[in-house]
Design brief:
Blueprint (H helix, E strand, L loop, with lengths): L19 E5 L2 H4 L12 H7 L16 H14 L4 E5 L2 H4 L9 H16 L3 E7 L5 H4 L9 H16 L5 E5 L2 H9 L11 H25 L5 E13 L4 H16 L2 H4 L23 H4 L6 E14 L8 E4 L18 H11 L7 E5 L16 H19 L4 E7 L18 E3 L6 E3 L1 H11 L1
Parallel strand pairs: 1-2, 1-9, 2-3, 3-4, 4-5, 5-6, 6-8, 8-9
Antiparallel strand pairs: 6-7, 10-11
The structure holds beta-D-fucopyranose.
The site of beta-D-fucopyranose has 12 residues, from loops.
Length: about 450
């Protein structure tokens, strides 16, 4: 990627006064305090304790210690002029047994976080579920058990009734494709289950839960809440014009970008373009297609990269293979993801074609690069350039009429990057995981100045 300096004519005003500027985190990646104050175990506590599941054997017990240091970190958000803060609620802190008895200490904790945000003039955006299912529910089948729709609804109801007077912006769930795909098909994320027989019911029940959660929030918080949910997306291109590569790319685009959102939008499962979805019939009951639909106030799009796809005889179900960015001689982040700014423009255009999406936000975008601390400073030029270039593409889409209304950087502080452990650093703020010292990186400074201007 070219390390361009910021163009002079590129500034916050280009996006309009109402554009939402934010930063996003997730409970399990930052909080630590995994077994404090009555918290129950989540699938990520159990998965990350297993040998060989997390790179370098990294442990989540402390992470960024956000559970104790939330004030310091919210102060930093304020210092960076970031008006909107997206974070998630740990289900097992509030319901240690998944359902049933409420842990008041968990409720009190999130009330303190929300109150502190509001006191500092930072608007809280709550993600209800960011992948950390209570382990007791996983023991009953987790997302593969249709009962999960009721379990999840109970959790949503508790969040709405305890925080709904203060929280105006809600995201029901984070990226169902990743926690079902990586967690229930590939087994590389919690709970580490494999195969289609786990994946398909997990997808179906996650989508039923998303719509049920949206409906509940609207019922319990009428008129006051802005209700959304988020999807992971990647811009997909075929490796060549050969019909087989084009067909393979179409399958991957359907799997990664369409499968999850289209049932929510009332379009049903896209089984014409992804025939393996015919096997989903087994899990669909009468009325499900209707109840998977919900008219969200906004859809959160989370995008990092593009994928190039080729035909592959050997890949089961989709006959498609993603050509690793590493093999393509392109600029990479520390996750091995290609830096390709137009991907965010292309995906916004693609999602903008769904006429029944009311509003789009980029609820995550950012990059992991190996940072160096020199004299208590981190001059992360690559991350700054990444953010600038991707934002320029967001603006291009907006100027062409896309209904994109906000942008959240992933993420505030370096944190526990799931199965990758602490190595990939995505933060605007550097964390020394031995001392918990924070250093605002130059990308964070840049983002703050950009928002303020
Ligand atoms: C997204 C996740 C987020 C983080 C980023 C890098 O898929 O929602 O928690 O891991 O990727």
């Amino acid at each position: 990627m070219e390390l361009t300096t910021q163009r002079e004519d590129f500034n916050r005003q280009n996006f309009g006064d109402d554009f939402i500027w934010g930063v996003a985190t997730a409970a399990f990646q930052v909080e630590g305090s995994c077994d404090c104050d009555g918290k129950g175990e989540s699938i990520w506590d159990v998965f990350s304790a297993k040998r060989g599941k997390i790179k370098n054997g990294d442990k989540p017990h402390i992470a960024c210690d956000f559970y104790n240091r939330y004030k310091e970190d919210i102060d930093l958000i304020k210092q960076l002029n970031i008006p909107h803060f997206r974070f998630s609620i740990s289900w097992s802190r509030i319901l240690p047994s998944g359902i049933g008895e409420i842990n008041q200490l968990g409720i009190d904790h999130y009330n303190r976080v929300i109150d502190y945000c509001l006191e500092q003039g930072v608007e809280p955006w709550v993600t209800i579920y960011h992948w950390d299912l209570p382990q007791v529910l996983e023991a009953k089948g987790g997302w593969t058990n249709r009962e999960v729709v009721n379990w999840f609804s109970e959790f949503v109801r508790i969040c709405a009734s305890n925080f709904g007077d203060k929280v105006k912006n809600w995201m029901v769930m984070n990226e169902p494709s990743v926690f079902t795909g990586a967690g229930y098909f590939l087994g590389v994320h919690a709970p580490g289950r494999l195969g289609l027989g786990n994946f398909l019911p997990a997808v179906h029940h996650a989508l039923m839960s998303i719509a049920a959660g949206g409906r509940l929030l609207r019922e319990l918080l009428p008129n006051t809440a802005e209700i959304g949910t988020t999807f992971s997306c990647s811009y997909i291109e075929a490796k060549s014009d050969k019909p087989r590569d084009v067909a393979a790319a179409n399958q991957v685009n359907t799997l990664l970008n369409r499968l999850y959102i289209e049932p929510i939008l009332g379009l049903g499962y896209p089984e014409k373009d992804l025939p393996v979805l015919k096997k989903m019939k087994k899990y669909i009951r009468p009325g499900d297609v209707e109840s998977m639909q919900f008219d969200f106030d906004f859809i959160g799009v989370q995008l990092y990269t593009r994928e190039i796809v080729e035909y592959s005889f050997l890949t089961p179900y989709i006959h498609a293979n993603i050509v690793k960015a590493k093999k393509r001689n392109v600029p990479l982040t520390d996750m091995g993801w290609e830096v390709y700014p137009p991907s965010i423009y292309e995906i916004l255009k693609q999602f903008n074609q769904y006429t029944n999406i009311r509003k789009l936000y980029i609820t995550e975008n950012g990059a992991a690069f190996p940072d160096e601390v020199n004299d208590d400073a981190v001059n992360d030029v690559k991350r700054t350039a990444y953010l600038q270039e991707y934002l320029q593409q967001v603006l291009k889409a907006k100027n062409e009429g896309c209904k994109v209304s906000g942008y959240f950087v992933w993420t505030l502080t370096d944190n526990f990057e799931w199965a990758e452990g602490y190595n990939p650093r995505f933060g605007l703020i550097h964390v020394n995981f031995d001392t918990q010292q924070r250093i605002i990186k130059s990308s964070g400074q840049w983002y703050g100045d950009f928002i303020k201007a």
